[in-house]
């Protein structure tokens, strides 16, 4: 069985918003200890103190990660954003081969195409389409090659989508390009929080 300190560390790692606040020194440790104690059903007073100590130690360990946030923001401030509208996503049978952005999964393929090729896909693969999403936009964040050496860039960007209630329908990257497919209705909101 894991110790209280190990359970505390695991809990914090499983809750990125708490980890982020810890990293920035924005946590009330007593309140955090009470929350973790309640959620993990730890009732002993000594265990609550152990939670508090473990959280403080974990904060010291991850404090250096705060520097990555500055590097990420600096990288993103020099990145360009390109938007393509009228995008569609199809999930098709694994055996289907198509000339478009295709993501190959273990049991199916995902095809990303513009409206102008939508009819072609639907006609050619009508019996192989498992699911389709329409009225989407493709956001491409074009960064420098430094993106390869800065940990957490994708995690930082995806957390912005999550925190702002924007669902990512599809995500992929191609070296310095990071691509997000979202619903067209969320484009304005996304452009606002992607201003770096």
Describe the 3D structure.
The chain has 196 residues and is an alpha+beta fold. The protein has two domains: 4-67; 80-193, 2-Layer Sandwich (VC0802-like). Helix content is 45%, strand content 26%. It is built from eight helices and six strands, in the order αααααβββαβαββα. Strands 2-3-1-4-6-5 form a six-stranded antiparallel beta sheet, with helices on one face. A hairpin with a 2-residue loop joins strand 5 and strand 6. Helix 1 (4-14) packs across helix 4 (45-62). The N and C termini lie far apart (44 Å). 20% of the residues are buried. The mean pLDDT is 91.
Secondary structure tally, helices = 8
Summed over residues and divided by their number, the pLDDT gives a mean of 91
CATH topology of the largest domain: VC0802-like
For the sheet with most strands, the description reads: 6 strands, antiparallel
* Low-pLDDT regions: none
The H/E string reads HHHHHEEEHEHEEH
List keywords for this structure.
196 residues; alpha+beta; VC0802-like; six-stranded antiparallel beta sheet; 8 helices; 6 strands; 45% helix; elongated
